[in-house]
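User: Structure please.
Assistant: Input sequence and predicted structure:
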Amino acid sequence: MPQSNLPQHKPKIGLALGGGGARGFAHIWAIRALDELGLKADLVAGTSIGAVIGACYASGMNGNDLLEFVAEKLSNTARIAGQIFSSSPAELVDLLNPFQPALLNGLTLLDILMPAQVANEFSGLKIPLKVITTNFYQGTENIILEGNIKLAVAASMAIPAVFRPVIIGRDVFIDGAYTNPVPYSHILDECDFTIAINVNGRPKQERQVKPKLAITTKAKARAIAKAENEVLIPNSREVLFASNQLLQNTIMAARLRISAPDIYINAPIDQFKVLDFHKALEILEATEPMKDELKRQIDAQLDR
């Protein structure tokens, strides 16, 4: 077996969790992989949904905790709606006010849905956390290391046209994925061993065969063949989100040419969209194989 280039002492492990909306549920398998190997990250950097999952992990939640939370709280659309609409009138107005710059107030949504175990302040975290966001007017990447956790995470996940920009001090912040979609660059210099998880994916063209009241096998075959030969034109909403995917993939390709983490995993999530939070269990099922793949790569590189 080849000799590891890592130091002989226990390596300091860094974990970078990227942005991707609902696709970010796949990050839970990365945490579960570390759990099953008896390892724990010493530093976490997160962008957007990666900041959400990263804040949970850095607060002391393990992979099982996160899986249980998603299964119990977030996988049921009716339950999510119930949690939101059982909030106070003031919270609802703040969350859904159509006269604001975007539909949803991310901070209010986090107040309603984020696990109670998450620390209120960075100073209360069990693992150091770097939350990545984008300074809108300066056009630069910004790293938040202190202050209120939910405010930082809301700034990191402020997807334009979905969540309102977040004001901290005199600065306006939007989704960190516009400047650093998978923020492994912020763990490289401080860690001996680095893992990065990309949940951005690529746009996927879906073929839909319209059902008929009575469809024969031949008719169905003709409908499938026709669908396969059609070029589907995405609607404006699909173009908006898919364009963000393409932009972020381009950013990451450029960053990877400059430097790379020890392990870089592309989660198998192309079939899911950024707002598919109602498909949480499907996303977890589809991405579970990445857990064993990550364990295999970690074992190989740490020469365990």
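The two ends are 10 Å apart (CA to CA).
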